[in-house]
Design a protein that fits this description.
By secondary structure, the protein is α+β, with helices and mostly antiparallel strands. It has one domain (about 10-215). The protein is about 40% helix and about 10% strand. The chain contains ten helices and four strands. It has helices spanning about 10-20, 25-35, 75-85, 90-95, 100-110, 135-150, 155-160, 165-170, 210-215, 220-230; strands spanning about 45, 50-55, 60-70, 125. The longest helix is centred in the middle third of the chain and has 16 residues, at about 135-150. The protein is elongated.
């Protein structure tokens, strides 16, 4: 039995399924599952920015189905790699082709958007003439990818344009940066809020000043100002005045 404070860990596949089927009724989901075997699996192509597949339709017709999502911006990826060098548990997971939620958190904080997309950022297309949107073929492709993520979670990295091998090579090619600020409280690695929890906000990215502090890119002027401010602090805080009203002695 789970403890009251324990947070449930949800697989990548289940997360994808939840996003893709949000606001979809049971009848349409059943039709999508019925169409799932019609996907020609050898024709499924997963690449940076999209998934393409072919599905067999009625009377031998072939439907071309696709999902599209923009790749992650790479401008701040070198910064992510610098911080990642101090996150041993994340490196270990990525080396095993796993994608932990903590890595999603780290990407969101530094890159500005999470690795795992929400449903609004995924567009789709299908050559069928069905009226519902998304059609059963698109929903079936979502379900196929959700199942693949549970077996090959690294395909999410591929879809977002992240080269896992190249990232790990750059992470491991040098020792941790000496100019990064020391980890607080002697913790063994870079802390990530709620590293494996499902219910945490990923939309808050670090601002430029906070990010510069995180990677040690701080000007000497800022450091001197901080040291002067600390030096000017009083050795002891003044005691609070007694604000309780005085009472007259009882005769």
């Amino acid at each position: 039995m789970n403890n009251a404070g324990e947070r449930k860990v949800v697989s990548l596949g289940e997360r994808w399924r939840r996003e893709a089927t949000r606001d979809i009724d049971d009848q349409r989901l059943a039709a999508a599952l019925e169409a799932l075997p019609n996907i020609r699996k050898p024709m499924v192509r997963i690449r940076a920015g999209g998934i393409n597949a072919e599905m067999e339709g009625a009377m031998g017709s072939i439907h071309e189905v696709s999902l599209q999502i923009r790749t992650l911006p790479m401008k701040d990826w070198p910064t992510l790699i610098r911080v990642l060098r101090r996150s041993k548990s994340i490196i270990e997971a990525l080396s095993q082709a796993r994608v932990p939620r903590s890595f999603d958190r780290l990407v969101a904080r530094i890159i500005g958007e999470p690795l795992f997309p929400d449903a609004r950022s995924v567009t789709y297309g299908c050559s069928c003439d069905l009226q519902e949107s998304p059609c059963r073929h698109v929903l079936a492709l979502h379900e196929l990818f959700a199942r693949r993520l549970d077996e090959k979670p690294w395909e999410l990295l591929m879809l977002r344009g992240v080269d896992l091998h190249d990232t790990l090579t750059k992470v491991k090619q040098t020792e941790p940066d000496a100019d990064l600020p020391p980890l607080a409280y002697d913790v063994p690695e870079e802390p990530v809020l709620y590293p494996d929890a499902e219910d945490a906000d990923l939309d808050q990215s670090l601002g430029t000043p906070a990010l510069r502090w995180l990677v040690g890119d701080v000007s000497p002027r800022a450091i001197d100002a901080a040291l002067r401010a600390l030096k000017d602090l009083p050795a002891e805080l003044p005691s609070e005045p007694n604000t309780e009203p005085e009472t007259a002695p009882v005769s």
